[in-house]
Amino acid sequence: MEKPLGTSLATSQEINDQVGEYFEECQVYRIDHYLGKETVLNLLALRFANSLFVNNWDNRTIDHVEITVAEEVGIEGRWAILIKPVRCAI
Asked: Where is the Glucose-6-phosphate dehydrogenase C-terminal domain (predicted)?
């Protein structure tokens, strides 16, 4: 899941609560949207440079890829959710 979630602390908590109904916390991966920028920019290079992906990342296995870069709000009121540490037993 991409952080920040929701449009306020309350909506962020609501989303996290709903996700928590279906997944254990250690099964959920959250990433700040800006930290994923470099990976998104390198998707094509990753796909063609890695033999594991060449036969699996194609039009037979992937319907479409959607990358949206549209942001009008900051992290106002959601800072507590962004810095919450999580521990998982493996």
From this structure: 44-79
Residue 30 tokens read as 């959250």
Residue 39 neighbours by CB distance under 10 Å? 10
DSSP secondary structure code for residue 47 in this structure: H
Contact 88, 20 (CB under 8 A): no
Element at 82 (helix H, strand E): helix 79-82
Question: How far apart (Å, rounded) are the C-alpha atoms in residues 1 and 81?
Answer: 13
- CB pairs under 8 A, 24+ apart, for 40-49? 40/67
Kindly state the DSSP code that residue 30 receives in the 8-state scheme: -
Query: Cβ–Cβ contacts within 10 Å for residue 13, how many?
Result: 15
User: Looking at the predicted structure, is the pLDDT value of residue 90 above 60?
Assistant: no
Which pLDDT tens digit goes with each residue over 44-72? Answer: 888 888 888 888 888 888 888 777 666 66
| Tokens of residue 66, six digits | 């959607």
